Amino acid sequence: MPREHRILITGASGFVGAWLVRELEARRLQRNIDLTVLTVGHGEASAFTADISDKSQAVALIGATRPSAVIHLAAIAAPADARRAPDRAWDVNFRGTMNLAYATMELAPNARFIFAGSSESYGASFIEKAGAPIDEDTALKPMSVYGATKAAADMLLGQLAHDGLKTIRFRPFNHTGPGQTEAYVVPAFAKQIAEITAGLRAPTLSVGNLSGFRDFLDVRDVVRVYADAALGSLRPNIVGKAFNLSSGRPTQIREILDLLIELSKLQVDIEIDPERLRSSEVPIASGRNEAALEAFGWKPQIELRDTLNDVLAEWHLRVKSR
Ligand SMILES: C[C@H]1O[C@H](OP(=O)(O)OP(=O)(O)OC[C@H]2O[C@@H](n3cnc4c(=O)[nH]c(N)nc43)[C@H](O)[C@@H]2O)[C@@H](O)[C@@H](O)C1=O
């Protein structure tokens, strides 16, 4: 008998959540699968709202939805927000994950629990490995509040796998694409470029630290593997395991900026804005992605240049329609 999928997405109204909902809806239409997408988030687009940091709300949510898979994206996702409000970041990112995971074990014990962790969990390990792409056995040594909350949740789920939780832990590296807010580097630059193009801003770009290297992905590549993890067959060697989502190719932020400027064909000055600098960050973050390839046949497909072009196009439209 074909399986019935009831996929609960937390953080469904966020940047990644919106793309994931689109991916799942497209698969339902293309492949004619029995799939119900249950969205938890803010605003009208989401069917459910819940404060997952409150245990009783997490229990009520799982009880009401009885999912076959939970894809847990809800988080305080911007490292700067986590630094500003560490207690809230721990409440949502750690306690929220714990509440949902225990509620799933209790009320939907056959459901898979798919977790969006973060490469930020590796922290100082990136420095120790001197920029070489790291694998999933590398120690989690978070340096930021955000990284610590995600590393703790990641470890919690690793432990709960031994108690029977069918969890899959992803550790995505930086991902971007249309719909991301200007709190993140690519839209931060793209928005200013669009404003300069429209004559709404002097031709000077405000930037933060350009020297770091990050392993960038397109959000549309990332949600593909989340959907596969929820819908595909669950081999025992996947349960409880952690998977980097990365390209293995670090790109300097300076190069991202240069590419965006080149694509926009503008002449601009660059100005460092101290407000955009962070007190500490790793110089190079890059991950090996063989485990995700082996387990899910996944590797990134979208070229960085195409992603940047799409983000630029989005901001040109947004600025024009203001
Ligand atoms: C893996 C991780 O990825 C994301 O967190 P993030 O790394 O903070 O992402 P971002 O795109 O804001 O920064 C990337 C780099 O870019 C530098 N940078 C320069 N100039 C500006 C600038 O003007 N703005 C920003 N935001 N960054 C700048 C900045 O110093 C940093 O080195 C989240 O998805 C998070 O959830 C997550 O898990």
From TrEMBL:
Its EC number is 4.2.1.47. It holds the Pfam family GDP_Man_Dehyd. It comes from the Bacteria. PROSITE patterns: ADH_SHORT. GO terms for molecular function: GDP-mannose 4,6-dehydratase activity. Keywords: Lyase. Residues 8-310 form the NAD(P)-binding domain. InterPro entries: Lipid_A_modif_metabolic_enz (IPR050177), NAD(P)-bd_dom (IPR016040), NAD(P)-bd_dom_sf (IPR036291), Sc_DH/Rdtase_CS (IPR020904). PANTHER family: BIFUNCTIONAL POLYMYXIN RESISTANCE PROTEIN ARNA (PTHR43245). This is GDP-mannose 4,6-dehydratase.
